[in-house]
Amino acid sequence: MLEIKSVSSSYGEAQILHEVNLTVEDGQVVGLLGRNGTGKTTLIRSIMQVKPPQVTTGSIRWNGQELCGLLPNEVAMLGIGLVPQGRRLFPSLTVQEHLEIIPRRPVSSGRQAWTVERAYELFPRLGERRGHRGNQLSGGERQMLAITRALMLNPDLMLMDEPTEGLAPLIVQHVEQAVRTLKAEGMTVLLVEQNLRSALSVVDSVYVLETGAVVYNGTASELSNDTATLHRYLGV
Ligand SMILES: Nc1ncnc2c1ncn2[C@@H]1O[C@H](COP(=O)(O)OP(=O)(O)OP(=O)(O)O)[C@@H](O)[C@H]1O
């Protein structure tokens, strides 16, 4: 379980997150929604201990262990995979090389280890592109590679920062299906999304951020029916 309690984070003097509380139970897919600039990526970076920002107060616990003060690779080795916004890839490495260079952690009990072949089963398109280099991939292929790279770590929690951003509708469906497949296998997911429809099709519950604070927490169906919140905080 991921437990975020009273977390505030700052870039220098600028405090962006204000006493954020958020919980992701094991096996849940939780959506993190909110307009541009409300602090979603800042929260993801705070969980991963990627600096900046600096977490100034509060605690972030994963399976009871405090993450604040660890290095990002130490957080990763506790079983937290990151799909960063912007799908950072190496332009000169092939798809296969991207997947092979990821350090592995021992797979958690009851789980099936991720292999390169299993990654290609999740996204067959990537298998067809295994010899292509990072700079030869389409936006959708880059996103698929970013997701599978994070999986190669054998994580128990995936932090996904806007995985459908800028993708064509068909590719968005592939990404949504991949999230459902991961959930069916017991993966815990914190999913940042701007695409409300896409988020609501895969998440169990949602948190909405506004100016760095949680202003809403409910199930996906509660949010779907809450037109006031949708209008006020998500502009729909
Ligand atoms: N490196 C940085 N230094 C200073 N301020 C930053 C930095 N990164 C982000 N911010 C500021 O923090 C605030 C929250 O940004 P953040 O990227 O977390 O929002 P977001 O909800 O993820 O938005 P988006 O959907 O646009 O990615 C914004 O006001 C942004 O300008």
Mean pLDDT: 95
Head-to-tail CA distance between termini: 31 Å
Largest sheet: 6 strands, mixed
Number of spatially distinct domains: 1
What CATH architecture would you give? 3-Layer(aba) Sandwich
**Count, helices:** 10
How many beta-strand elements? 10
Strand content: 25-35%
How many whole angstroms does the radius of gyration measure?
17 Å
What order do the strands of the largest sheet run in, or round the barrel if closed? 6-7-8-3-9-10
Low-confidence stretches: none
What structural class results from the helix and strand content? alpha/beta
**Name given to the CATH homologous superfamily:** P-loop containing nucleotide triphosphate hydrolases
* Helix percent band: 25-40%
What hetero molecules are in the model? adenosine-5'-triphosphate
The CATH first-level class comes to Alpha Beta
- What sort of overall outline do the alpha carbons produce when their principal axes are compared? globular
CATH topology: Rossmann fold
Helix/strand order, N-terminal first:
EEEHEEHEHHHHEHEHEEHH
What features would you highlight for this structure?
236 residues, alpha/beta, Rossmann fold, 6-stranded mixed beta sheet, 4-stranded antiparallel beta sheet, 35% helix, globular, binds adenosine-5'-triphosphate, transport, membrane
Describe this structure in words.
The protein is α/β, with parallel strands linked by helices and 236 residues long. The protein has a single domain, classed as Rossmann fold (3-Layer(aba) Sandwich), CATH 3.40.50. Helices cover 35% and strands 27% of the residues. The chain has helices spanning 40-48, 72-77, 95-100, 116-122, 124-128, 139-151, 169-184, 196-202, 220-224, 227-234; strands at 2-11, 14-24, 29-33, 54-62, 65-66, 80-83, 157-161, 188-192, 205-210, 213-219. A 6-stranded mixed sheet has the order 6-7-8-3-9-10, with helices on both faces. Strands 2-1-4-5 form a 4-stranded antiparallel sheet, with helices on one face. Helix 7 packs parallel to helix 8 (196-202). The longest helix has 16 residues, at 169-184. The protein is globular and about 45 Å long. The two termini are 31 Å apart. The model has no long low-confidence stretch (mean pLDDT 95). The structure holds adenosine-5'-triphosphate. Adenosine-5'-triphosphate binds at residues 11, 14, 16, 34, 36-42, 52, 85, 194.
